[in-house]
């Protein structure tokens, strides 16, 4: 079996035993999900880079010291928990930091494209995007968190459950309530969402 196909647990053990290349494989394997998760929380590329690097500094320090790493859990979930703790620490230290996506570059509707765009469609899309962001921010924290991780970070429900420390069923329930609450607000306020 090629080294790049080895399970995370084996690569972690090899890294602990001194094989530096094993960590490089783990980073390459999971960097897009970790980076995406951090960015979904902080909405700033420079800050995302800083937290991403600090996350792996902590990973390296923990693995080299051979303590606090629990092999029962998945490597990715463990790293995402470290990243999440760093984000929370940063948020506590800087009350001005927004914990939401606020850029047009990664809009909810960025995947909706039209080969013949016009000003009216663009204005409608922008207004709907603004309205949807406001609605999402009004959801209870646990529902908003699951929704953001699922749709902005493209995480599985199992990964979300591991990070938030609840069961998969609880995670699924929170997502269901989030979508139900979004629909109620959209219907109540007669918000038009183009298909």
**Overall SS class:** mainly alpha
What is the level-2 CATH architecture name of the largest domain?
Orthogonal Bundle
The CATH superfamily name of the largest domain is: RNA polymerase sigma factor, region 2, helix turn helix motif
Q: What's the total helix number? A: 8
> Averaging pLDDT over every residue, what do you get?
77
Question: What is the CA-based Rg, rounded?
Answer: 19 Å
Number of strands: 0
Which spans of ≥5 residues are poorly predicted at pLDDT below 50?
96-116
Question: Can you write the helix and strand succession as a string?
Answer: HHHHHHHH
Query: What gap, in angstroms, lies between the N and C termini?
Result: 46 Å
- How much helical structure, as a percent, in the residues? 55-70%
Report the sheet-strand fraction: under 5%
CATH class of the largest domain equals Mainly Alpha
CATH topology of the largest domain: Rna Polymerase Sigma Factor, Chain: A
What is the approximate shape? Answer: elongated
Count of the separate structural domains: 2
Provide the descriptors you would attach to this structure in a database record.
2 domains; single chain; Rna Polymerase Sigma Factor, Chain: A; mainly alpha; Arc Repressor Mutant, subunit A; 195 residues; 68% helix
Structure characterization notes:
The protein has helices at residues 8-16, 20-42, 45-65, 75-93, 119-138, 141-151, 157-164, 168-188. Helix 4 (75-93) packs across helix 7. The chain is built from eight helices and no strands. The protein has 195 residues and is an all-alpha fold. It folds into two domains: 3-93, Rna Polymerase Sigma Factor, Chain: A, CATH 1.10.1740; 104-188, Arc Repressor Mutant, subunit A (Orthogonal Bundle). Residues 96-116 have low confidence and may be disordered. The termini are far apart.
